[in-house]
Amino acid sequence: MKRQPGKGINGAGLGPGKKTRLNRILHQHGLRNGTAIFLPYDHGLEHGPRDFFDNPVVSDPAYIIRLALEGGFNGIAIQIGLAEKFYWDYAGEVPLILKLNGKTDIPSDAEALSPLHASVADAVRLGADAVGYTLYVGSPAQETDFRQLRQVREDAQRFGMPLIVWAYPRGAAIEAKGGRDSFYAVDYAARTASELGADMVKVNFPHPEKVSGVKDAYQHEFSPQQAINAVVRSANRTLVLVSGGEKAGDEAMLEKTRQSMEAGATGLIFGRNVWQREHDESIRFVARLQEILSKYPQAGAPGA
Amino acid sequence: MKRQPGKGINGAGLGPGKKTRLNRILHQHGLRNGTAIFLPYDHGLEHGPRDFFDNPVVSDPAYIIRLALEGGFNGIAIQIGLAEKFYWDYAGEVPLILKLNGKTDIPSDAEALSPLHASVADAVRLGADAVGYTLYVGSPAQETDFRQLRQVREDAQRFGMPLIVWAYPRGAAIEAKGGRDSFYAVDYAARTASELGADMVKVNFPHPEKVSGVKDAYQHEFSPQQAINAVVRSANRTLVLVSGGEKAGDEAMLEKTRQSMEAGATGLIFGRNVWQREHDESIRFVARLQEILSKYPQAGAPGA
Amino acid sequence: MKRQPGKGINGAGLGPGKKTRLNRILHQHGLRNGTAIFLPYDHGLEHGPRDFFDNPVVSDPAYIIRLALEGGFNGIAIQIGLAEKFYWDYAGEVPLILKLNGKTDIPSDAEALSPLHASVADAVRLGADAVGYTLYVGSPAQETDFRQLRQVREDAQRFGMPLIVWAYPRGAAIEAKGGRDSFYAVDYAARTASELGADMVKVNFPHPEKVSGVKDAYQHEFSPQQAINAVVRSANRTLVLVSGGEKAGDEAMLEKTRQSMEAGATGLIFGRNVWQREHDESIRFVARLQEILSKYPQAGAPGA
Amino acid sequence: MKRQPGKGINGAGLGPGKKTRLNRILHQHGLRNGTAIFLPYDHGLEHGPRDFFDNPVVSDPAYIIRLALEGGFNGIAIQIGLAEKFYWDYAGEVPLILKLNGKTDIPSDAEALSPLHASVADAVRLGADAVGYTLYVGSPAQETDFRQLRQVREDAQRFGMPLIVWAYPRGAAIEAKGGRDSFYAVDYAARTASELGADMVKVNFPHPEKVSGVKDAYQHEFSPQQAINAVVRSANRTLVLVSGGEKAGDEAMLEKTRQSMEAGATGLIFGRNVWQREHDESIRFVARLQEILSKYPQAGAPGA
Amino acid sequence: MKRQPGKGINGAGLGPGKKTRLNRILHQHGLRNGTAIFLPYDHGLEHGPRDFFDNPVVSDPAYIIRLALEGGFNGIAIQIGLAEKFYWDYAGEVPLILKLNGKTDIPSDAEALSPLHASVADAVRLGADAVGYTLYVGSPAQETDFRQLRQVREDAQRFGMPLIVWAYPRGAAIEAKGGRDSFYAVDYAARTASELGADMVKVNFPHPEKVSGVKDAYQHEFSPQQAINAVVRSANRTLVLVSGGEKAGDEAMLEKTRQSMEAGATGLIFGRNVWQREHDESIRFVARLQEILSKYPQAGAPGA
């Protein structure tokens, strides 16, 4: 299986501000080789504090930011409230990805929509290096979702701020067509983010074996590697971050990581798989991920 | 059967900016005789990557833009994300039609609406020569649809940007009245676009034999030529582009093309029928289309 | 004497809109080799109709636009009033450079300032491919001048519209320091336009022999070639257009042209030297200029 | 002497709103042959009531509007205050030209500027068919003057409202260069209005014998007919209205009228020469003017 | 002589965005110890190309940016035109300080004012880490100067963008009171920048021996060290950068550097003293400056 080429940040479409900030994230933090591991920490809003029960110290945002620093992450993704209260203490030490929308998981997901609660201007003011937006691909609420994303994209373009889209298949129609992590759904989600202007897209690892109700083209046998290859290709020049999702077995996560990087992904965005462990164990696990990423340097490095 | 006259771009209602940009599309690219073939490439959003499975190279937007250049197309129609990332490399080589709205085909079509995700100002900034808007004629969501289109039309008028309307009959009521490609539905859609301010309208080729549930006037025997003649006439000074739709037999497509041009259409907008083939075969098929269009020069040429 | 390299339009700083429009001007009109000859026609405002007395037909803007078409010019530079009334008839046939400011030569030049009378938005609406702004380098009115230019530059950046600065040394201090066409003054003017964001700059050919009152660095013997070389270098990535100024001897103009192109200039902006002659003589003179420019193809051509 | 052709209103640059309103003025009032006589009545502001002393009834705006109706004028030009108080009674009976700027003649004219006191939006609200703006060509205040005019032009374009510029040479530099009604000054003023976007321009009849201080090109012997021919040509597609100025001998005025129409002017704008007489005498004088204009029908009539 | 403490960036008044960006400049580039050497390159506008004559390669902005990279500078300070055209190629490699105002040195300096030609929003868009503003302390134009600075300060606060003030005593009154580099004038300028909201201030090294016309308090004998100590103290929490000014002897510059750092300055902003030499010599000279700065680590480093 031939490795797919990485994507880099040298496309002129990026503009100087986006290129500056992506260069900082990808080449001046973490492994500094064009790959990235982000630490997302929006679970307190998205799931509630239940995600912190097994390891209560992680309910403290300062603990998480320090973990990002110690682990050599390329950025932390948090909501406006935590950014306002906690980022100053570590300002500039680790890139900030300001998550601009979010929701609780209390009401039904059938017409999933993640409302905006912060702006690109907030991100500029806080010194963030990117903004994050959750798009629920396939949701009946897509009119509002697209309208929100359009405003974010325009502001991000105007301010030279990279836009990372959390592209999540969601809603009743998705559940009827293979579910949210089917190859079909993840592939479509990656492409949608790219078509709508994402600079990076966060996707779940695709499951090609989930074929019930999916479109014909996906009703075939695909290996996980073939599936993630296709997803990265569908995203074209949009850089791909693979999500960790719920905490799973380490070896499975490492294998997914290898496959993703082999497919041309830029890196990972791993939350629960990292911080739902004891501190030193978190650091050790990140080191194992970085060991894999170190084998996949990307274009766009200084002098490249 | 007497050929209907073409329409040209010399109506003073166009204003200098729209005339400049249409002149460029129709007389400075492609056959340069006032006809046009556009290459649409919004399928990644509208259908998902499945449309690219048979010929995976077409999932790469750069391949498509190069195909448009090699084939001598009059323009490519893409969404904002691909335009931002890929058009710079070919800026000005082939006219850009920025598609301003779009949707996934995951949720139900019963209340079809294509949300805006870009603006006419984006099109100006990117150097586009036209904007595209999908109007779902007959959809229960027409209030929002018309409100969106009104904003686009006003901006297009203010910036001198030609407005191409993808006029698609859609929604439960349409399905009950002959379906989306009945003569009745296509004819009504063409007229609606014209009444609401389109400079060009993209329609499907009308099917006069689909009469179940259509209005009385359409409950008669019409030849395909009569039907497309009527559709072009309904569009009056709005230039007509005939859509290729799903990939179909070559001879059928060529015959449709001949009938459309005979009726006074300006040209074609063919996506899957072109790029769902191997590269050289795509080029050869386009050449056959152009051979037909070369027999139908339109008014508005330099010196006309 | 080693020829200096041309500049081209492939710098990522241009953005897709500016690149599209410059590509059109430089590679889809005129010689299509990256060089340019523009026909300026703002003399009716800047000098009054007296410039038209020797050849009254040139007081008719339609004559001038046709001359630009017949002569194969890369663009015409006119004020808003003529653009509104005359460009429609030739919309898109020859690129329009909308001149955004201008003044009469009736009041004193001591505090020269060229007031804005049109906007970049007007240029977009009219289908123009560039805007022109006259900057009076060295004038005591520089505060207002810079403020006006800043607005134009921001709008041009926002709309992807190339900005051509007419960089004219002017005012009492300039007259005391070598005059408006000294090497010192022209070199400084070219650099100022570049520092303030011009995509192209129009300068007079520098006179290195005018040394009375100029800064020490210019108090040396320089050949005309050395002087124009330095001016083009001072402009760095800003493309240089050399002005014809008052009608002068043909051989002198051709020699200036050769020297300018040798220095790496992009082309010429010749008004009175072209249209203050009988029609066929104008065309013949332009052909001689083009013969020179054809030897200096620039980077940035399609496929480059 | 060959008669110069009239200009008409069929240029596409006008847009539908301007064409509608000009068609109303030129073809549905007065002689209905494309010519025009306007009745200006801004003297109460520009000179003060002294202009009304010889015939006190003319200080009553209602008298003037009735005079315009009885005399078959193509429009009255008045300031906002009189328009607000008097036009309702005759709304639509005679076209209203709302004069948007004006000044008293009390302070010095050296830096002449006519401040705005109404807007194009006021004109729309009042049902006016055109707006008038006084531009002091050659005044040192040209920066402010051009800025004001730019706003008026943009609004007029946006609202489809014809823009009539009162182009008056004025200021110390003009006095030093032949004075305000020299051929040089009037010719330059007509051109300036055209370059800055006037649809019609009001000029004084040029005096070719005033040559002291004028540019060389005007230092020759020109007949009055040659001079007015040149002025109309300088205005190109901008329609020319010749001003009556101070009351003068009837035969002289009629001769000027003949020469102006022969030159291709659209008509007259006569105030004091009309209403500084007894009522019936005013009407008789207008009839003599119309007799001349009836011999010069202009293009642009309905069906033309 | 007791060394004065450095200032660092840990004051909460900074806000997270300013702290992030200052942290990047001071601790993630150059020596990474809280000190800084900036490379200013606005001489093409402020003095004209004559500053480049001795070493013509420095007229190329790309050369200068590469010099900043090779020399390990903490930032380059350039105008908008060069930033737009050249920064993309090196985006993020070296911090960009966008200079927001500037002027030519052609007209008289008596009422010195540096007009704005770019905005803080431009800086955000380009990915800059600070903005620069030249304040002419003591100029009669201070009303306009303060109004401009107020807008910049407000925008900088809103966007979290550090504000560096070039505090230059200037104007007729300054010349009469000790001149632009007297201790009195420099001390006053440093304080003025601090009082008006500068995050950093660029000052010339003070000359305590220039006492003619200065206020009594400065009419005493002060050592250069005492003078620079006082200036740094006057700036309080505003970080101080000492300017190199015209090229001078190396030993003198190194001594000034030592004295400045001893006084608690943050670093240097050296243009002509660096780039008006041959390339390798520039690098060697910077290394000698850095050797000094390495002895003065400042607070605010990671973990501080």
Automatic annotation (TrEMBL), chains A, B, C, D, E:
Highest taxon of source: Bacteria
GO molecular function: fructose-bisphosphate aldolase activity
InterPro entries, A to Z: Aldolase_TIM, DeoC/FbaB/LacD_aldolase, DeoC/FbaB_aldolase, FbaB-like
UniProt-annotated catalytic positions: Y168, K202
Record Pfam families: DeoC
SMART domains in UniProt: DeoC
TM ranges: none
Protein name: Fructose-bisphosphate aldolase
Organism: Streptomyces roseochromogenus subsp. oscitans DS 12.976
